[in-house]
Predict the 3D structure of the following.
Amino acid sequence: MDLLPILGTSAATALLSSVLTVVALKVDVRWMKDKLSDHETRIRQLESKVN
């Protein structure tokens, strides 16, 4: 049994999984920043109406 192709496939799978995890986290962080910014804007508008 040749071990090199198995190790190569395993390494490629691990690399791809890591890259896709980082990309997903970046998207989630960007989405959270956008939502926080929207909330901040809405809160400021509400506060200005109260004051």
Remarks:
- The mean pLDDT is 95.
- The helical segments are 3-50.
